[in-house]
Specification:
Length: 323
Amino acid sequence: MAKIKNILISQPEPADIEKSPYKSLHSDFNLKLTFFKFFNVEGISASEFRKSRIHIGEHTAIILNSRNSVDHLFRMAKELREVIPETMKYFCTSEAIALYLQNYIQYRKRKIFFGKQYFADLIDVMSKHREENFLFPCSDEKQTEYTKLLDKAKFKYTKAPMYRSVPRDLSHIKLDDYDIVALYSPIGVRSLIQNFPDVAERNIIIAAFGLSTHAALKEAGIPLSIKAPTPSAPSMAMALENYLLGKPQDEVIVVRPTSLKAQQKLHGKTLPNGKKLRPVIANKEKYKQRLEQKKAEAAARRAERKAEREKKEREKAEKKNIK
């Protein structure tokens, strides 16, 4: 594998890289990281939104999958002069987005619900509130993995496009200066192709996060070398680190909704992939023990990666001394 020196990350630059997931790439591997978001998010105007004849107040719950959806929901409500009822329930993909809601409303547990990390987790939470009439503020993309999951789960929901993603001009970027380009969304892929139509023919390693991003690259005929998330690399930073260490890639994580009823039916049985269904942990002490176990396993993985880096550095130093 050729030596990797420069990586282009298609995301905004962290406020402090020393506190970001990319710290080890920057310090331990001595890489030059360039951050630049490949697209802008633009709000759809109130006059354009009115044509959809969607009224926020006619819904009893709102699905929020990003900070953009939160910001544009309340922007649109303000521009339309619609008052969001106090009784409105909010379903967020993660606790971070639920906490971000505090910028607009008072945080109350009885009306704010959130999943663990993935949209499929949120589907499980929503399945206990099937009587709700959901509003889904989102981008103007025709169909996404989110809407596919909502359709499959047969929720009563209204897709409400409130913003759109627009590819940015990347003409100032010299693509051949980079060894790896990291992508995080289909719109990022579209922006890359729009600015560099011959990207598939260039000798650049492509890293991508998420199944929809992988699918967009496949459709465009662009080879994909580094995939995330996987069990050993749940983040892009870890996937890049594993690649640099020469570790083999494991299968990409595919998270599917699992309702309580489905768990009860399959309890103790073997799933199609050969794995046994894990029982739901109701005991708090056992749950805490499981969390501690996961933390210990994560710490062990970090220590293993650190040991591998140190071993490589020692071998490099020994080679220099021999010369």
